Prior knowledge:
This protein is α+β, with helices and mostly antiparallel strands. A hairpin with a 2-residue loop joins β9 and β10. The relative contact order is 0.08.
Amino acid sequence: MQTGEAMRITLVHCLFASSLLLSPVFGQSLGRVEIRPGNRSLDAILTAYGLDHHDVLAERAEEGTYEIIAPLSSLPQLTTDGLEPKLLERGRPFRDIQRERALAGTEGVVPAGYPDLATVIAEMTALAAGSPIARLVDLTQEYGVPATDEGRHIFAVKVSDNPELTENEPRCLLVSCHHAREIVTPTIGLEIINRFVAGWGTDAVLTGLIEDHEIWVAPVWNPDGYEYVFTGDNLWRKNRHMNGGGTIGVDLNRNYPFGWSQCGGTSSTGGSTYWGASAASEAETQTMVAFGSDMRFNRVFDFHSSGEHVRYGYGCFSHPFLNFLEGEASQFSQAGGYGGDTQTSCCTGGNFGWHAGTFGSHSFLWETANQFQPSYASAQAEAAQVFPGVVAFLQREASVQGTVRDSCTGLPIDATLELSNAGYQLGEVTRPDLRFGTYQLFLPTGPHFVEISAPGYATSSQNLVVSTAGTVSRDIWLDPLTPTPMTYCTAKVNTAGCTPSMGWTGTPSATDSQPFLIEAAHVMPGQFGLMFYAFETDATPFLGGTRCVGGSLGRTPVQLASNAGGTCGGVISIDFNSFIQGGTDPLLISGTSVYTQFFYRDPASVAGIGLTDGLAFCIQP
Length: 621
């Protein structure tokens, strides 16, 4: 008879043996392999096999060997190349490894261990459902982008004092697990959400951050790969895209458009850093491109492992503010318990570089832990350790901030801010928020020259001086080359399922006898409506929709919507030039900015009222 301890040891050994027999054989099975390079360059070997330094697990200088992660199919070629490969361990399902750790008493009983994908999503769902400051968002559904190759969606939790609203606040992204085997990072993502939820109303610092920011946390950006780590191969790095020719997977952190295919990756489909057939070829990357293009995050932290340092800059291009970024990264590293350790980025085509180069985000990559899959207790300790670094990152004030607006209407403009004296090599720019026109710049002290441009506007040049005294505030007004009315705000979908819209023909004028027709289309036919106008905008919830005009309101006469055909064929129009020149309102004079919105009858809707979007314009002479 075996003792209980002996039976447990036997079971662990049996599980290990069975995992070797049942380890994945479909598509690039991986293993821990010892190689002996001799006098050959390790970099050259890694490049030849489509690997990088993240695939190097250990160096044994006294023995002249390295331990790497490599496809099992490469063993014959490694042998042919004289590298004396020795297979140390096959990749296998991580859930088997967790089971062995638990049986051996190294993982502990509570908690059970690393959460698989279903558990991660379940915890995100529970946290959002149980807190007024958190909202779970299905990003795949929100942006209408493709699901992953295996049909999965990508989720994030928005943390804010009003998570259902989009407010004029700095937006921050904290994202984990672009690389599947780096399973410490989802634990960090979940810990961040948990700490903010628990700190709301009880911790003054965290409550302040929640009130003043929109914080987005995405614990798993590579759901297919993460699931495969648990069910197939714990050493897997890429996503699960079928490349053809027996190879699988794209390195998502080499697939972003900014600097794509420039360095730090490979065109070999079997390589661990394969950058994909084209920039943003992968559903996961497309999701981030849609998400980031909409949100235009001011700050981005991208969590990886391993290394215990913060990365900054680019892999193969110089950055004009490299010393400044190193100092920033060192502060966050120090706050996160890594002693200020930093490194420049290894590559281009990555997520944090795309945000920085495309939108001017203050972006960094955090290499956490000292191995991919330490004990779960170690991962939890790591998450607790780095959280003060996250807080320090969110507390970092911008060097310069302000808005970019149309000088005529005052509405935000989709502009480009370019540091003309910086010496960027890749066309880096800053893009203001689309909804509010707000921007933030993170710059070293000293003078900076900014050119602000947008199609249809005269370019503006601004001289800025950044100092240690605090944030410089600078609002920028661009003059339209030809003043043109602009739509804004959001229409209320009516009970016929249609979205009414504002349109116009002609030019608003205080003297021109030609008409300036303002029109509301797709309203309910045969119903009464009228147009309200004001001299400031609004964007507050109103009668089940949004009120787009604010302050003191004027109104035009009530009209009956014509019927152009169909349930949404109603049209209401007014010649506003006749209204201006009729003298009804003495404030409607040349140079005045006017904001308009139609209200109309929709008997079956909330309060029986339908609302269009808004139209803004300047009255010309």
